[in-house]
Structures are given as C-alpha cells and as structure tokens.
Amino acid sequence: MKRSWLVAVSLALVLTMVGLCGCNTGSTGEVKLNLNSQQEGIWVSGTGKVTVIPDIATLWLGITAQAVSVAEAQSQAAEAMDKVMTALVNNGVAKKDIQTQYFSISQVTRWDREKEIVVGYRVTNMVTAKIRKIDKAGSIIDAVAAAGGDFTRINSISFSVDDPTPYYEEARQKAMADAKAKAEQLAGLSGIKLGKPTYISEGTLYPPVIYREAGMAAPAPAPPTPISPGEVELSLSVQVVYAILD
Questions:
Q1: Of 35, 49, 58, 86, which is closest to residue 164 (Cα–Cα)?
Q2: pTM higher than 0.85 for the full model?
C-alpha cells in the first residue's frame, strides 16, 4: 500500500514538471519534454543619456522651535511657520506646490549624574516648496530666512525638469541605438548573422536629485543668495534580445 502511494506521488510530480516545462506531442502520441527553457539569442543592454537645463527647483525648508514646554514650543513653531508660508506664497510659490514632509514634537534631554533629565521640547515642521520660476530661488530663500528668523531651517535644494517626456524619448532612441551597436559587434565577432529583436525591456534611470546644501541664511541679508541650477542628466536603459539567423 505504501509503495502504491509513492508511485502515485511520483507520477503527480512528473505531470507537474510537464505542465511547468511545456511539452510537445508528436503524431505517434509520444510526449517530449523540453527541459531547456533558456531563450536563445544575443542579449545586450543599451543606455541613453540626455543633459538638460532644469526648470524646477525644490526647497526642503521649515522651522525648529525649542522651549521648556510643549505648548510654548508649538506656539513659537506655529507662528514662525505661518510667516514662512506667507513668505513663500507672496514670492510666487503656489499653495499646491507646498507640501508638509515632516512634523515632530520631541523631548530635549540631558544627563545629570547618570540620570536623564527633560530640559525642554523641540517642535520641527518641514515642507518642500516647488519653485517654478527657478531664477527666483535665491530671493525666495532670503525671504524665507527673514520671515522665520532664527527658527528657520533650510536643509537642501534640488533641481529637476517639470516635463521630462521629450527628453526621455531622445534618451530612448540613444539607448536602442547603443544596444543595436553592441549586438552587431557581438554578432560580427562571433561570425553569426543578427536577426530582429525578440524581447525589449525598458528601465528608466530616474534623474539623480541634485541636492545643494543651502544651510540657514541670516535674516534679511544684504546681497541675494546666489543659486546655480547647473544641468541635469536624464538616463534610460533598455535590455534587448536579438535573434540569431541560420
């Protein structure tokens, strides 16, 4: 009985392998298993890169207030943040382009004779502000620093492209050309004839977010803060399998 059960289990496993690996049935009804599932062809990858001038600046900014009580720290933080938000809007930043990223209320402690003592509370409120008029980035930083005063925190600034679609189209063309050139070289070195692509996969390499530390500017500085957006590189990769002709 035990032997019959083992035979049944073995037969079930064989049938499962047939389903997974695929099978061919000839005219005689004979089942042929195809255990070689690896696709044949020339596998290559290509990369396309396009350098563009960014038209969007994103500031990571906010306030940090500290006081002996939560209520006092919250009050200071709320007042300072309200002034910062007003400065952003008054300098052309749309409300829809301002988004809260981080908010926390934490204890401030110190050690006294191996004992931790709470000495106050810290409130931090950080937002991102998307600046669509990139040439105003410096003046907006100055306005925010003046509005928030000593509570102001400007952690970083990044640059990007608002609509990268046309640039990715150009990068895609370059990536495919790069892949084809590699495949043709491999075919020539191998003495074979290159066929058409049988598989194409695209992987977008998102543009590196270029952060520049802006620090905390002093209130109402005499000269405007200089900001240089530079350039942004957009990259796109493809993986292509070319058939080998007989």
A1: 49
A2: no
